[in-house]
């Protein structure tokens, strides 16, 4: 990947990017209370006395939230701190009933780690390592609702106290594409681990985007922070628009102010929200209501043993054990649901065809990525809401594998499976779509094709061997796609030679 540069009026500029990702921890209850965390609940229906900061209420750490943070740290090869502490971050806002947020600054639960990103999706081995500074656990604030009343704002405390992991990267990214790849890879890892559902559209994962510009190789410039960006595409757009804005300001003789900004996707621009506070402005101090967290070896071992096979390891296994191309292996392992679907399809196909998984893996991968995904895209559906499950899809693949139908006919069968919900075998039988290996019928079709295209036969015999594919296509067309392609190839070669 070539270096990303902004061409300013006075020369080239380099962009420096760091992301602070807030990921909502997968848990049935909040970080310090037993209140529920379900998305979309009625306002203020999931608020305990602790979340509402009633006098005398004491927080109690949720073991599952701590466990998920530790497992996430382990998944990115990070240092796990056996001793960590909660701090109070003091600020005053209508959706923060305590007047402070319980967070971790000085002693986070997870230390340094790293995330490996692919710079080129077609070549997953072309990678860059992005450093992660720390992961700390904190509680979320509530939400102000400004559109419910003409003169007043309402406060919904359902999110108050929800557990978040703040995953802080190092400023190691140098282009919008790298920032997008990092966020997508981090989301993939969290979904594999099960520590966050990654639903950015529901706000359970969002990014604060830190951007600065500099002359290539010089000292870091002053950064701005664009808050609460909720998609990979928008993160990339923020980097590009904010970096260009900063170059214009500097080249116009101005100075970049360290500030918090908001992104307006309709105008594709960032705008100033407030001056950026430093840590000392929040008067951090250890939370007196909470003892430090002390993790023992048994707990850490339990966390490590619970980790699944992660995307990079799975991709390497698909390439080495199943013989998949790097591109296909990458597509199938990027998202945990896709990988699970593929593995279920593979197991069912091997069972239905009586072959080993390695024997049917390439065909299953190619078919899933090209034909099945294509059919789903036409319907505007995802794998999760596919009308055809992996068991039914495996039944169709098995019919291709044993020669009952051709790949061309399989596309028609798949469409009918989506429409009717019937199995591939039922559709093939009902509509007479079985592939024929009847040499007599195929030879007759070939004879007609060659007779109708005598000029092309002469060209073929004169050395234009690329025409062989034309003859195959015409023969398959004459047989309505039902001829066995390998038999067609053999008989055509004999007829032409």
UniProtKB/TrEMBL annotation:
Keywords: ATP-binding, Ligase, Nucleotide-binding, Protein biosynthesis. Residues 340-496 form the Asn/Gln amidotransferase domain. SUPFAM superfamilies: GatB/YqeY motif, Glutamine synthetase/guanido kinase. Signal peptide: none annotated. The keyword ATP-binding applies. InterPro entries: Asn/Gln-tRNA_amidoTrfase_suB/E (IPR017959), Asn/Gln-tRNA_Trfase_suB/E_cat (IPR006075), Asn/Gln_amidotransferase (IPR018027), Asn/Gln_tRNA_amidoTrase-B-like (IPR003789), GatB (IPR004413), GatB_C_1 (IPR042114), GatB_Yqey_C_2 (IPR023168), Gln-tRNA_amidoTrfase_suB_CS (IPR017958). It is an enzyme of class 6 (ligase). Gene3D superfamilies: 1.10.10.410, GatB domain, N-terminal subdomain. The keyword Nucleotide-binding applies. Belongs to the GatB/GatE family. GatB subfamily. PANTHER family: GLUTAMYL-TRNA GLN AMIDOTRANSFERASE SUBUNIT B MITOCHONDRIAL AND PROKARYOTIC PET112-RELATED (PTHR11659), GLUTAMYL-TRNA(GLN) AMIDOTRANSFERASE SUBUNIT B, MITOCHONDRIAL (PTHR11659:SF0). Heterotrimer of A, B and C subunits. Allows the formation of correctly charged Asn-tRNA(Asn) or Gln-tRNA(Gln) through the transamidation of misacylated Asp-tRNA(Asn) or Glu-tRNA(Gln) in organisms which lack either or both of asparaginyl-tRNA or glutaminyl-tRNA synthetases. The reaction takes place in the presence of glutamine and ATP through an activated phospho-Asp-tRNA(Asn) or phospho-Glu-tRNA(Gln). This is Aspartyl/glutamyl-tRNA(Asn/Gln) amidotransferase subunit B. It comes from Novosphingobium aquae.
